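[Discussion] Sanity-checking designs against the backbone

I'm trying to build intuition for which residues belong where. Below is a structure token string of 78 positions. I'd appreciate it if someone posts a full sequence so I can compare it with mine line by line.
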């Protein structure tokens, strides 16, 4: 196999989330950081919508840090 040179690319920062997205990280650390690898799971699995108080948003789709962004009909950013 020939030598292949590769560079580590910095991880992409996800777009700003909906202001109604909630996760356990808000209540544990007080300030969830989307770039913190320790908070990674909390943004994806332990989320709920503050409008519906459920894991489904007003549009009846699942909520997560990577799904609740601009382009989704119910998303509101600050």
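Best answer:
Here's mine. Compare freely.
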């Amino acid at each position: 196999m020939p030598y292949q040179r590769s560079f580590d690319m910095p991880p992409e920062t996800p777009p700003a989330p909906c202001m109604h997205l909630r996760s356990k990280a808000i209540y544990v650390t007080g300030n969830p950081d989307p770039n913190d690898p320790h908070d990674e799971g909390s943004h994806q699995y332990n989320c709920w919508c503050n409008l519906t108080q459920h894991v489904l948003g007003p549009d009846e789709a699942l909520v997560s840090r990577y799904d609740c962004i601009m382009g989704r009909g119910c998303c509101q950013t600050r």
